[in-house]
Amino acid sequence: MSGSLTADALRLTISDVTVSEGEPLSLLLGGRRIWTFRAPSEAAEQRRWSVEWPPALAERLTGQATLAVERDGVPLVGERLVAFDDGTSELHLTEPGTGLPQVVNKWGRVARSFEGRDAGLVEDVLDEAEHLIALLHNALSIDLFVTGGTLLGPVRNGRILANDDDADLAYLSVHDNPSDVALESFEVERTLRARGYEVVRHSSGHLQLMFPGGSITDRFYLDIFSYFVCSGWFYGTFHARERAERVNILPLKRFPVNGRMLPGPAEPEQLLEAIYGPSWETPDPTFTFITPPAAFRRFYWWLNHFDVDRENWEDHHRAEIAAGPAESESELARKALEVFGTGSSILDLGCGLGADARFLAGSARSVLAVDYSRPAIQYAGSQRKASTGFLRFEAVNLNMARSALHLRKQCVALDGTVNVYGNRLFDALSPLGWDTTLMLVKHLLHSSGSRGMFEVATDGPGESVRWNGCQLVGWDRFQEQLRRYGLVIEDEETVVSDEPQDAAGAGSTRKRVIVRKEKR
Q: Considering the entire predicted model, what is its pTM?
């Protein structure tokens, strides 16, 4: 073991070791495996080579850390102390708020896994899975079965994968039209919500049930996927697309999962090959999903994707809460109060931890503040001061048209003129979110005197550039989208900040705009 390593905020560099192209290597942080990657082509030819950090890991790299690299569990490069920046604190890759160890998972996200956690957690997950199987069978005659990682591990050795972090369940829809499949999924959601479950919708064919472990954390979650057959093809949301005759789901059969007999597909091997490919039997710690373009197009346009960056924002907010968030309002909120006046109601879109909403509620007639980050809404609600006016925090996903329309209905019940406020809202929205949000704003600003006030971090003319779940908003594009929805800029102000760039867009040129509905 003669090799060495260095690292900075961009990449890991390894020297003086011989590895083959594509060999899986594991990175250890403080002796704990956190990431597995494949050696690049130059590793077999050069004495010194590098790999870039996964983006989700890169944004967590601060201070100093003790790193090492293993190959097949055998040390390849011994522990080295590295510095990612000028900080002197030791890096611990743990979940903010709980301190639970985290790893880079198969999605490239920094998340927990079952490995190293309470042994009873898996049993609790399986208890809930069995309860859901019985509930949906009795309520809707929908028969759930295990799939994904909850099928892969048990088929290999009878037990759930240690590096997994959830339980995957699915059902085979009785419908063959994607619109009917989506409606069925919404019926499942309504049924689960009526039973008290907290449900997050990823797409029209993918639900996630959250099981809280604290005020801003989740102990675990379970996925429910809609599978269906359309025009002779089997579709396994979100990834699998195979000829229907090659994936036999029915009749379901039971097989052992950690000592329990749970329902699974008629031919588990066929489904696993559809999901993971022909090499599914061989464990691959570097596995990532590569969705075939033909499948991606259909899943996106049929079922869409409503959950863009939510998990990243929830992690961001948990870290802010753990660090002690700033409680003072923004300059934009103070200016908005001058523009809106004291007799109106305000809808705060993308409220985050709620500092601006609490400030606005002190003088506005009423404030409805929304965000799709669940920890942010939970924290914001807990900080509501008795002295503020009417103030309500609510979790709303602005990527979904039905959520935006529901929000419009709620705003009708607010007193007086309703103004709309968004502090760097458009920096964080997907193109789908832009459309649903601007549609909502258009409808809310129909009355005389209603205004919208927004701040965006802009890169000037051109297209938006995304980073870390945010974007620099192309100013031309922003104006064009406003015009598309019949909105005009009544006033604008350019603000230049010398702060370092961060996930919220600081350090860029910012535009503050007052928007009204175009008069015709």
A: 0.85
